[in-house]
Write a structure and sequence with these properties.
single chain, 389 residues, TIM Barrel, eight-stranded mixed sheet, eight-stranded parallel sheet, 14 helices
């Protein structure tokens, strides 16, 4: 199949005006100027499908229901309480609504943290490529780490592992999950250095998170020593295969550790604003040589699962950044973070045919047309199959 468009935007190469992309099977076999052959998609930008590097579809029905009053620990506790009241039907409806939102906004691959992984087989088939990463928590060491990891490895639909965060997952759980994920080429991802409270807890043994967890009975022996980044460094899990979400509270040494270990970071712009975190560190991380990509996080702390919306929020955070600088964070950078560079997030020969068409809508710059898109995509192909037109 040959697809023609006013602009073809490979991201990994300069835009092609009046371009064409040839697809055979699930792959792209040619990219170049249009010759008049094939199907004309019209006044659109044909771009690679977007990648959401950090998402929780599970909380899509909790939008606006978990208010933030200044303490991240309190917000988390509130979410945990609210989760107990949800039925399977609530979760299933929320996950499906979330998937629909992602597809409409041009997302073709999602790294999704699964906190109710037993429901995955009950979901209807979707063309969206969801990498379900089972959330792993052993806060009070109720179950041995081996058992938790073993259960996740056996679970249908799971393709990644996600120890939740250093304050809810033990070093043993991190080590074991990382080893098994690496052995299977699965995605390995975690929340890291998200809040000041987490930083205070580990580095200084102070603050509201420290007090709350201590009162709840958590063993606090790992606190009052080093920050969370160094803690994971000691577990030897910081590698190019370890995708860390947030990384908001970092020292210069932490940034050096992320760079030296090749650890990629997923920034979630709307969640960042929701928790009033101030200026993100991602510009400094990029300068330090860290690979930064984008995620939507969940609707419990964000407004939208659209990666267009996340890119637009990023543009508000960094008004000096051009659309050309922003788009790689939702395409090529994310593909690299998932060890899928050259395969996902770009239009090139040999890449998977995950394509979206975005109306030009009066834009002269194809990058701006994509980053600032406000309508659903007019065409979408995943794995070479047309799934929306
Ligand atoms: Zn998250």
């Amino acid at each position: 199949m040959i697809l023609r468009a006013k602009w073809v935007l490979p991201v990994s190469a300069p835009p092609i005006e009046n371009g064409a992309v040839t697809v055979e099977g699930d792959s792209i076999v040619a990219v170049g100027p249009a010759t008049g052959e094939g199907r004309d998609l019209g006044e659109v930008v044909l771009a690679p499908g977007l990648i959401n590097a950090h998402c929780h579809f599970d909380y899509s029905h909790l939008q606006g229901k978990v208010p933030f009053h200044g303490s991240f620990a309190d917000w988390l506790m509130l979410l945990v309480e609210l989760k107990k009241q949800q039925t399977e039907a609530d979760y299933l409806a929320g996950i499906q609504a979330g998937i629909e939102q992602a597809l409409a906004a041009g997302t073709t691959t999602v790294v999704n943290i699964a906190s109710v992984p037993n429901l995955i087989p009950q979901l209807p088939a979707t063309p969206l490529k969801i990498i379900w990463c089972e959330e792993l928590i052993d806060l009070f060491r109720e179950e041995p780490a081996e058992k938790l990891v073993e259960a996740a490895l056996q679970r249908p639909g799971i393709g990644g592992l996600s120890p939740h965060a250093p304050y809810t997952a033990s070093p043993e759980l991190y080590r074991l999950a990382a080893r098994h994920a690496r052995g299977r080429h699965w995605v390995f991802t975690t929340h890291l250095a998200e809040s000041e409270e987490e930083d205070d807890m580990f580095r200084r043994g102070t603050g509201h998170m420290y007090d709350s967890f201590r009162r709840a009975g958590r063993d606090m022996a790992d606190c009052k020593r080093v920050g969370p980044v160094q803690l994971l460094r000691e577990c030897e899990v910081l590698t190019p295969e370890c995708l860390v979400a947030h990384a908001n509270c970092l020292t210069e040494l932490d940034m050096m550790l992320l760079q030296a270990t090749g650890t990629p970071v997923a920034h979630c712009p709307q969640t960042h604003r929701f928790f009033r975190r101030g200026m993100p560190l991602i510009e400094r991380l990029q300068h330090a040589g860290v690979n930064v990509c984008l995620g939507s996080d969940s609707l419990a702390s964000g407004e939208s699962l659209s990666m267009f919306a996340q890119m637009q929020e990023l543009s508000r955070e960094f008004p000096r950044w051009s659309a050309e600088q922003i788009l790689p964070l939702a395409t090529t950078n994310a593909a690299k973070a998932l060890q899928r560079a050259g395969k996902l997030g770009e239009i090139s020969v040999g890449a998977v045919a995950d394509l979206i068409a975005v109306p030009l809508a009066g834009n002269f710059d194809p990058y701006e047309a994509v980053v600032f898109a406000e309508q659903p995509v007019s065409f979408m192909m995943i794995n070479g199959n047309v799934v929306r037109e």
